[in-house]
Amino acid sequence: MEATVLNLLASVLGPLWAPLWNLVKPVWPLLWTLAKIVLIMAPLLLSVAYLTFWERKIIGWMQVRIGPNRVGPWGLLQPIADGMKLFFKEVLFPTAADKKLFVLGPIMAIAPALALWAVIPFSPGWVLANVDAGVLYLLALSSVGVYGIIISGWASNSKYPFFGAMRASAQMISYEISMGLALITVLMVSSSLNLSDIVMAQDKGRGAGMGLGFLSWNWLPLLPMFAVYLISGVAETNRAPFDVVEGESEIVAGHMVEYSGMAFAMFFLAEYANMILISAMTSIFFLGGWLSPVGFIPDGFHWMAAKMAAILFFFLWIRATFPRYRYDQLMRLGWKVFVPLTLVWILVIGVWMMSPLSIWK
Amino acid sequence: MEFKSVLFYIFSAVTVLAALRVITARNPVHAVLFLVLAFFNVAGLWMLLQAEFLSLVLIMVYVGAVMVLFLFVVMMLDINIERVRQGFWKNLPIGALVGGLMVAEMALVLSGRYFSPANLPPHNLPADYSNTKELARVLYTEYAYPFEIASVILLVAIIAAVMLTLRRRKDNKAMHSADQIAVKAADRMRLVKMTPEVELPSAGKGEQP
User: Fold this and answer.
1) CA-derived radius of gyration, chain A
2) Please, what's the largest Cα pairwise distance for chain A?
3) What is the ipTM of this complex?
4) What is the pTM of this model?
5) Nearest CA to CA, how far is B181 from chain A (Å)?
């Protein structure tokens, strides 16, 4: 891709290109990386904006309402209007708040949510950093995301935000464990920590040989882990039915109570960016990433986008369907159901891989 | 100066400053957050040494789990900072002695033959070198038994810690999900068949007080 862009620039600028290139050459790697970051971030933020719109529309339809339909054709400009409104609102600081940490909270929420996209491959070679320890990077940085909630909850110096922070720290640590353990089975069968390699490992197998690639993807042989991962992903992003961190009926909006304007919008951005990230990770780990489900249609980014959209729809669907979990039930599900299940399944996969019936050789 | 050296100096300077702030910060929550910052920078230092597994696991385990629980506890405490600072000068000699001992021990270990430049691994590792794979290879072949024994000891410690601190309250109102799901309508409500009792309108003398 880099060579193509350089050729294109050279042909567009013509004689101006040679002197310009001499000037740019020393900093070109930096410029190129920045360009790639913008190429990932701009569509991501646009997706976040329209995911909120899509959510309101879908939940509206599920509840036999119309949803937002006033701003622009079919209400399509609603997220822009919401963004403008939040942008121009004042950010209030409570008197008793710890000012520095109050500002740091939203930053710590959004920074990991965006930084995580550095290792996500969208298509063969379409990745910002094709690192060997991609999965570790994902696990490490996603575990940092909880700081945004804890810091903002404490810095607000108010009761409900503090409850939200306490709930968040317990919940996110619990579900990180089952998520990590579920990922271990994926790492075992693909014997790599590189995300592109994990996708390519799902391109082999009996199903892929017959032209039915979707039977070779990890979701089928690792089915319980797929379910555990997806449900833990919902809990990890604090989405309904696991949104006790915000719990409108009990603690108003949890850690976000004291925030207004753009600081509040940061939490929303982080939550939706994390949702999209979980859907990208699930499609990479379990649904074959950019691979086509059947042999006669070519692979490509459109498949990844379709899978992510399907999982995002699942997120919205369960929000409209299920009532909120009680906190003790939520902890029970994490510790007493998911953790033992994943531990047993690691053993099962290990035995399966060593047995003559192994399908991963 | 090489770019890597610049990064090294930035990381180590921030680590030292953050570590200093951990012990000088007046607010314990700030101290914990400075410790998190120190961990991040140490992870950066490890990354510079091409030890990406150790670096990322440091963030995952210490920053992502241990420090979150630290924060959890520290935020719950209502610490009177003035009382914590009492007796600083009285305890200083002992603290200085312990600190000095630790520094001396570390200096002895690090200046030993084991860490001499001749014994260190080659500086320029091959491009396909994977820290994760190398660690796993050593851990699961050469040191398989010590590794397993260490993990079993840790497991025993976890269970022992839980059992030592577990106090079952008599008035515990926790509900069991299995019991709750097994409940039938008949357990909660009893329908009684009875003949209708209609109070006839009495003439004058009722039960009116």
Assistant:
1) 22
2) 70
3) 0.82
4) 0.83
5) 12
